[in-house]
Design brief:
This protein is mainly beta. The protein has a single domain, classed as Jelly Rolls (Sandwich), CATH 2.60.120. The protein contains 2 helices and 15 strands. Strands 1, 3, 4, 6, 11, 12, 13 and 15 form an 8-stranded antiparallel beta sheet that branches. The protein has a 7-stranded antiparallel beta sheet with strand order 2-5-14-7-8-9-10, with no helix packed on it.
Amino acid sequence: MRSLLCLTALALAVAAAIACGHSYAEDPAQPVEAGPDVPDAPDGPDVPPPSPDAAKLADAAAEASTRFCSNVGMQQNTDIFCADFDGTDLAEGFTRASDAGLSATNVTALSAPNALLANGPPGMSFTDRGPTLAWEHLGNPISVLDVTVGINQPAPAGPPGTGTGTVAMITMQTELTRTSFLFSRGMPNFSIEIEYNGSAAYGKRDAVPINLVEGKWTKVNLVYNVRTGNVSVAYDGVTVLNKVGYYTPQAVLTDSKATVLIGALASGPTFIEPFRFDNLVARVTRE
């Protein structure tokens, strides 16, 4: 009887536990211990955004690398100067510039975006006048002066004048000599002229047998070899005039200052004469 009562009590206890939602088949839940705290990763250094000045410098460097003058290399024992007129200053790198008559033009530039426009002034005076850019450099005695520049002479807006004066587009000077590439509305249209000691009375002029074509770019190369006295002119790499012994050969070289001018340096009776210039390269070879 007593055993029956115990079994009855156990059955009632199990029933009560089931009624309360607990199952003896499940293990009681074990508490989960938290792991050690993991510190946050430290913040990296602050990286400031690129400044506007840095962006401008990067743009300027990229632009400079694509300019004509960025591809002109140096030569041993050679002074070299290059001007492509594509910067913000037309006189960039030049020693001096005239005050008026020079401007930038983006019309048919030899290398984009700009070329130099020089307007030769009208007048009657035989004193040199007109817009020019000049580069000067000192060094050891000069043996060769070599200038190459693109020239584009616009067609005249009206009937051309017949002035007998000249307009020098390229001029190369030492202390004792001056060599110029000239234009004249008289005949011949194009010529070279040399002078000793800055005086035409001690110089001479010879016609270049082939004219430049108006409105077309031509790379004009003017070379003076001081030691031999030879002077040559080439158009687009083709020699059109070669004067042997034009100057008196110099066995001993003494001139050390080189000057190169480009522009529209007028002398004598002239009308307005515009010229475009681009991609100037001047080389001075020294002993």
